[in-house]
Amino acid sequence: MSRHDDRDRTIALAGVLQAAHLVTELARNGRCDAQAEASSLESLFEFDPASVEGVYGGLAGLSDGLRTLHRQLTQPAQRNLELTRYAVALIHHGDKLLKDRDRFSNLGQELERFKEKRTLFGLGDSSQSAQLARLYQEYISSVEPRIMIRGEPLYLQNPSIAEQIRTLLLAGIRAAVLWRQCQGQRWHLLVKRRKITEMALALLDELP
To answer: What CATH number does residue 160 fall under?
Structure first.
């Protein structure tokens, strides 16, 4: 994936928004779209995809993120500012991770080892979530400023939901890194806002 265009950048940005939206849903309601969550989780193990959308198993795996992105850009009155805050934080942490080559490399190696382990032993969802949450805590959570999640204490204090949230934050950072690898820049979010909106709509039209 050496050459990238607005399509690739929009797909990667939708990955960031999808993770942020799922985190919001878990923190507020204690549940989220299982298919979207699975697609975001699987993106952590796509190390050499043939295309940007291949990171998510195709555009269908990003339908939630594309809809969220389009809604955030076209419906100011309904814009979720908390979701935007999470997305900005994920991009910030993705930038920090890319600049710290040792941390970036070590995290990648951990994910590769984990992929081999789950292939060999067929780990269940709860076990996967727990181990990925541990990687988030080890490599991301101590980096300032920390990503602070707001929501219902009933859900935030639930260990299982907390692990899901950390796993999705890790997936969101993976998407933020992908966006940067596609030459995504922060000024694109302002200058290319209309183009991103049009591309998100075009991608939604491609969904089955």
So the answer is: 1.10.3890.10
